[in-house]
Fold:
Amino acid sequence: MARREKTTQVREQIVKRTDDLLYKKGFNLMSFTDIAEVADVPRGNIYYYFKTKDDVLKAVIEYRIEGMKQMLTEWETNYPTPLQRLKRYAQIPLNEKQRVIEYGCPMGTLNSELGKSQTSLQHLAKQQMDIFNNWLTKQFTLLIADQGSNQSAAELAEHLLILTQGMSVISHIYKDESILLREVQNIEKWLDSCVATV
Amino acid sequence: MARREKTTQVREQIVKRTDDLLYKKGFNLMSFTDIAEVADVPRGNIYYYFKTKDDVLKAVIEYRIEGMKQMLTEWETNYPTPLQRLKRYAQIPLNEKQRVIEYGCPMGTLNSELGKSQTSLQHLAKQQMDIFNNWLTKQFTLLIADQGSNQSAAELAEHLLILTQGMSVISHIYKDESILLREVQNIEKWLDSCVATV
DNA sequence: GTCTATATGAAGATAGAC
DNA sequence: GTCTATCTTCATATAGAC
Structure:
């Protein structure tokens, strides 16, 4: 195997496994020792691939963003209507319910953590949210296209983000799956009503 | 001044000022050096009042809970109807908008932070949320008393918690006050509609 | 009760042998 | 490219003089 390929492969393994670790421990409690352990790479070796812990975070977020973009593109081919796509988005917390209950939303909790006196890192974490926000705005634009709605697509997208973040926070705190189920059903009704007001 | 009074006074000063510090830095990034600095007490001296950092957290949360209980009791005398009280609750993020934009919700962000592999501490943080949750449930019970509503008061309370947590998260990430304003108005309409369905 | 000095451990990061 | 040994810094926590 060529040298560059090997490097890329090990680097990818570190990033993939650190993604999960970051989610479960948070950024500040995640140490290089932890990273080395889950990545199955000698501790000092991580520094061959990443200069600093911030660099690791950056790589993990970029990896996450790649996955999100790919997922959203797939959805656009698999679900023909914006209503279906928006409902699919709202399903995420329910599909990931065990993890949401145990650790919260990976995107929201990271933003909350870094939002406290680590603004340069929070800016990185925000990029994840931007991906969803932009995509949701696009879907809502299509949804309410010829409906003189009194709310803009951007506002509707923000509202949907608020609902998914809120239910992740509360269901996480109360360790209660039924909250997710109920709230997702509410969201589906609300999305239907957005179309119905023609 | 009697010895016991002096101790209580210094202890209270540490707790009050650490409350703010905890909010702004989060638990894991808040060091004893920071605490000593904001409390204006020599570093090693904190240990006379608190054995561990966890003990400081416990005291701060107890202090917060006391303040919350007092506030809610005041509301019950100042606002005669449950509708007014619920609207007053929804106003909190708007009243605290600068701080919410900069640091998020003090209660929600603490829960999110401690919810990751620090479950014994998260249990403490959850107690804050319980205070609001129980009080909101009580208000919703009064609100929908004789209305055969299809949603229970507990579910409505959880939904309101979700909305306030969600808007805190999103407005914090996007540093956008207008989100708070818009969402609080939405909540007020929703609360009105809860009564209107008689 | 107050404060200083310090023990102890773990973190991020580096140097350099292999 | 890989891995070990180690540097430095800063954290929590303690001992003990005053």
